[in-house]
Amino acid sequence: MKKGVPTASTVPTADEPTVLVIDDDPLTRGALSSLFRSVGLSVRTFASARELLEHPLPTVPSCLVLDVRLPRLSGFDLQAELSRLGLKIPIIFITGHGDIPMSVKAMKAGAVDFLTKPFRDQEMLEAVTRALERDLKHRREEQSNLDNQTRFESLTPRERQIMSLVTAGLMNKEVAFRIGISEMTVKIHRGHVMRKMGTKSLADLVLIAENLGIRGQEK
Length: 219
Description:
Elements: E1 18-22, H1 26-38, E2 42-46, H2 49-53, E3 62-67, H3 75-84, E4 91-95, H4 100-108, E5 113-116, H5 121-153, H6 157-166, H7 172-179, H8 183-197, H9 202-212
Parallel strand pairs: 1-2, 1-3, 3-4, 4-5
Helix pairs in contact: 6-8, 7-8
């Protein structure tokens, strides 16, 4: 690694971010571990892809710093295996033998960055910061979707029906005619839906319905 001036990560620290380093060279693992710990990041190191797969991934914002050339299971093989398992974690590839086709392959498969050794410390820290921010955003979105699903399940069958129809663009009177109740009753149910789903506008409710896949899906 080329030396630079390390700067602290700008990633929010509500949960302690963790960097997973996978490289068969102990000197590289040690240098990267020291670099990341110097800016307050938690680090776990592995000598092979197989070793990583034997351990659960962190439940906090995290990323992989992954050597392309590893024994038995390569970095690209590990990327494909994690994808197959549905495990989404940002990856920064590192290699001493990089080329353009290799980097294009990595980025097309979803890698955050592709760094060729020797790289500057600051270059690595910036890549890791981007990766951790991406993972934090993904985790927040997943938690938000889970919360919305839980709220949706708290609705009565009638409230779910009305949520589906109003988010599809139907006016209250149209919903009332469609399901055979009064417009006032629709308004009352709609108010309950807004309160239970924690929304203040129809636009917010439409976005949630879209993410849940129930917009216009009358049941």
